[in-house]
Amino acid sequence: MDTGLANRVAIVAGSSQGLGRAAAFALAAEGAYLALCARGRAALERTAHEIRERFRVRVYTETVDVRDSAAIEQFAKNVNKEFGRIDICVTNAGGPPAKWFLEATDADWNEAFSLNLLSAAVFARAVIPYMQQRQWGRIITISSITVRQPQPQLVLSNAIRAGVMGLVRSLANEFGKDGILVNNVAPGYTATERLKELSASRAAALGQSEEMVEQVWTEQIPLGRLGRPEELADAVVWLASERASFITGQTLLVDGGMYKGL
Ligand SMILES: NC(=O)c1ccc[n+]([C@@H]2O[C@H](COP(=O)([O-])OP(=O)(O)OC[C@H]3O[C@@H](n4cnc5c(N)ncnc54)[C@H](OP(=O)(O)O)[C@@H]3O)[C@@H](O)[C@H]2O)c1
User: Fold this and answer.
1) Ordered domains of the chain (ranges, CATH)
2) Fewer CB within 10 Å: C terminus or N terminus of the chain?
């Protein structure tokens, strides 16, 4: 399958580990040039180095905290300066902490808004003008199965990510005329560092072992296992590619069948 991604320039945010890192690898495997960001420099540089060695593509890196709007805007400018274009933007970051509703403070709500909703909006605002110049673009948000199936103890994610859906649909409507397609991928339980943190926190809350928590999760998944980051990354590649050229405003669940609705 020719994805048409060779020589495209793709920003992947939150890409030093986990799902963002896997998405970066998968886009590089298709020949895309990359601009990666995260807060921690060491892991980011390790990821960039591995990608350059393996795929021989150009990789630009910058330490960016996606809660800092000015930093995102500067990053986009730097990426455009480096490559002369921005074709694809994958928004991603860490997730909000697991909290029950009565535990979540105003600070928690503001933090979740900034990390998981505002950052996606600011990335979109920063990259859309470059995409409009070429009348081609792909914005892909990485959110969560919580957009379809709210999860216990994840009220911050359950509520805030619903806003990402509103953003994705709005951008798809407004910028379709510019050839910019905007979609969301929603991972179910996928084996990353973030998931290990969640299983530890849930195990502590329930007084159970992490293995028991993971077993309860996998029992809800028809495929009977956690996802692999590469499986989410393949969905990102497809949505970024020419093979998904009539798809916009959608959410693609990558959850092994965990969401049971129609
Ligand atoms: N894994 C799952 O099962 C699962 C399921 C549903 C939804 N999700 C969601 O998918 C997203 C990615 O999950 P993951 O499992 O890949 O998480 P992860 O393993 O914790 O990786 C998060 C990545 O984002 C970066 N990051 C975190 N905060 C950032 C910030 N403020 N600014 C810039 N970069 C930041 C991290 O690097 P630094 O820490 O160095 O910044 C890291 O590279 C999260 O929003 C998560 O809630 C994951």
Assistant:
1) 9-189+228-254 (3.40.50.720)
2) C
